[in-house]
């Protein structure tokens, strides 16, 4: 049984590593383009890994990160933020404006959130620089009071 668990864990690490490499490439391009937050997704990514990848990208780039796995036109994802920036509130605000189909954040430490959005809304909204700027401003306005 221990050998079987080791094998499963090794496969998970391989999947995580492959997703992280692809996500880092997307993130580097966004940061080079002046992005103040990162939004990466891919239809081939496993939804059970996106939170781990979001955490690793946040640590590397020190900015808010949204990582999504796409399936059937829906992107389900996870967000991580830096201290003092309430990504959960930003996700809730986006949901209230019908930019997300579901989403919410953790009350503490206010740097974790989950989200779901239809690809037809998400990709046009998050990718063009002219639309990323207002999202950056809105995200930065979600300063945590803690």
UniProtKB/TrEMBL annotation:
Residues 39-95 form the DHHA1 domain. Pfam families: DHHA1. PANTHER family: SINGLE-STRANDED-DNA-SPECIFIC EXONUCLEASE RECJ. This is DHHA1 domain-containing protein.
């Amino acid at each position: 049984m221990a050998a079987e668990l080791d094998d499963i864990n090794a496969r998970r690490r391989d999947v995580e590593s492959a997703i992280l490499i692809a996500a880092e490439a997307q993130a580097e391009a966004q940061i080079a383009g002046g992005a103040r937050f990162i939004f990466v997704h891919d239809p081939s990514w496993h939804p059970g890994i996106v939170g781990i990848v979001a955490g690793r990208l946040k640590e590397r780039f020190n900015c808010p990160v949204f990582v999504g796995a796409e399936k059937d036109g829906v992107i389900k994802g996870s967000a991580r933020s830096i201290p003092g920036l309430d990504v959960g509130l930003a996700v809730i605000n986006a949901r209230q404006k019908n930019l997300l189909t579901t989403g919410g954040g953790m009350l503490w430490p206010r740097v974790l959130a989950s989200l779901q959005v239809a690809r037809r809304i998400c990709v046009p909204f998050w990718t063009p620089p002219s639309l990323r700027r207002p999202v950056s401003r809105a995200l930065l306005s979600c300063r945590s009071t803690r």
